[in-house]
């Protein structure tokens, strides 16, 4: 199936979600693949001169994305842009989802300057995720704002909140904060469907999960907290980021596969 579409230059901006963290691939730039790379691979099937750049960096807050990625993205003159930003802000205590959305809208208006198709994301439902479940109401408010921002700025929204399949634990990486390879694959299919681009990415047909005992679940939770949660909290206390000293994996618009 040929992926017919009108775009020839795609630029993705954002944080770890767009960088592809949770979907390790040693042969990919930066060592991660992710949904954006998968989408670009499908889009590239339709034209020999398709170009793709990914400026996203893990751990970035919204203002950092605005300051470091918006203008470089526009300089690449894309006709398709995706932006997922603000999620790291929402996780921070005291953050206001309305204020974050106001800043996002200013970035969205700037990204629309040259008429590119713009893709936004409503965040997934984190109600079943440890720690993140505490900010579920803020995420829901932010999502409503994102839908309004998209409507006012003629953008499209990939609604991850509505994707019930993302509630499957197998969609998530071991850190329970990022998506697994399967999760990124599933999101890539949703992005392409939102853009009305035909593709041959296989849908997910899960096998039934075997139930685990309460004791086993608690052991797994303790192991997860020790390996992932504690380092995450320590970084927040020290005002450090997982993206410190990390550069964009695809800073220039080029061929998806060399």
List keywords for this structure.
258 residues; alpha/beta; Rossmann fold; six-stranded mixed beta sheet; 6 strands
Description:
The chain has 258 residues and is an alpha/beta fold. The protein has a single domain, classed as Rossmann fold, CATH 3.40.50.1110. Helix content is 40%, strand content 12%. It has helices spanning 16-19, 34-43, 62-75, 87-91, 97-111, 136-152, 181-194, 214-237, and strands spanning 9-14, 51-54, 80-84, 117-122, 156-159, 250-254. Helix 3 (62-75) runs parallel beside helix 5 (97-111) and helix 5 runs parallel beside helix 6. Its EC number is 3.1.-.-.
C-alpha-based Rg, rounded: 18 Å
Question: How large is the count of helical segments?
Answer: 8
For this structure, the CATH topology is: Rossmann fold
Class inferred from helices and paired strands = alpha/beta
Q: What kind of sheet is the major sheet? A: 6 strands, mixed
Q: How would you spell out the order of helices and strands?
A: EHHEHEHHEHEHHE
CATH class: Alpha Beta
The proportion of strand residues reads 5-15%
